[in-house]
Write a structure and sequence with these properties.
With 262 residues, the chain is mainly β. It has a single domain, classed as OMPT-like (Lipocalin, Beta Barrel). Helix content is 3%, strand content 66%. Strands 1, 2, 3, 4, 5, 6, 7, 8, 9, 10, 11 and 12 form a 12-stranded antiparallel sheet that branches. Strand 6 and strand 7 form a beta hairpin. The protein is elongated. The chain starts with 23 loop residues before the first strand and ends with a strand.
């Protein structure tokens, strides 16, 4: 008997994980531990600088809902994402110039409350590049935002007199989006999700988002993911009477999600 006859047959390499063809649906509920940085102004009040950690927001959180739904196959993807929050935070005024607030001392504080709805819808077409376990889609869509802001000013002037002024405004707008959505399957359990988008209607009105997460399929129907998300908004409107709504913010922080897949 020759030595070659004793050689043990080597197993063939396992094929790469290929996403299942056909329509797949995913309903997701998630929690986003976001912090807030930016500024806001309503009407004739000066712009208030905002800087709230997740702890600050959680302490003042009055309600929240976050969820998404995605349908995809080997060619197309469709998705919607909805965020509603009611939060409060404190800010500080940037006072300058010779206007009606010039007599205020620096360090003026403001009580800030915000109801915000962010609804995003997108559709995409798969880009046939990369390994078979990568699903990459180019996307177009729209993001609608509605913000109700209440500002309550309380301060003592240099003359020692008290000053308190409250104002509120609500506005909504939509921005067209272009972006991508990608899923990379490491194996039948672990996967990586990423998406990004950008939209603008003018140099002062724009939005952008980035998200990346690592997920685990516990069963064919249930999965969880942990990731990080950033959402930027810059919006301003005004009128010829001097009133305006000014809102610039960055929401950022980690998130955790639970998904039902079918």
């Amino acid at each position: 008997m020759r030595a070659s006859d004793l050689a043990v047959a080597q197993p063939e390499p396992a094929p790469p994980i290929v996403p299942q063809l056909g329509w797949q649906f995913q309903a997701t509920a998630y929690g986003w531990a976001s912090a807030l940085k930016g500024d806001a102004g309503v009407g004739r009040l000066p712009t208030a600088s905002l800087d709230a950690s997740f702890g600050d927001i959680l302490k003042n959180l009055k309600g929240a809902f976050m969820g998404s739904f995605i349908a995809r196959n080997d060619t197309f993807i469709f998705g919607v994402d909805l965020i509603w929050t009611r939060i409060g935070a404190d800010g500080r005024f940037k006072v300058g110039g010779d206007g009606p607030f010039a007599a205020l001392r620096s360090g003026t504080s403001v009580s800030f409350q915000q109801d915000q709805t962010i609804a995003t819808a997108f559709a995409g077409y798969r880009i046939p590049i990369g390994p078979p376990n990568l699903s990459l889609y180019g996307t177009v869509g729209v993001r609608y935002q509605n913000i109700n802001v209440e500002l309550d000013l309380s301060h003592t002037t240099v003359l020692g007199t008290g000053l308190r002024r409250s104002t509120s405004d609500s506005t909504g707008w939509a921005d067209p989006l272009i972006g991508f959505a990608a899923t990379y399957h490491f194996n039948d359990k672990w996967y990586l999700n990423a998406l990004g988008d950008f939209g603008a209607t003018s140099s002062s009105n724009m939005t952008a988002q980035g998200l990346v997460s690592v997920g685990y399929n516990w069963t064919q129907s249930f999965s969880t993911a942990l990731g990080y998300r950033v959402l930027y908004t810059d919006y301003e409107n005004g009128n010829d009477r001097g009133g305006s709504f000014r809102y610039k913010s960055t929401l950022y922080g980690p998130f955790v999600s639970m998904s039902y897949n079918f």
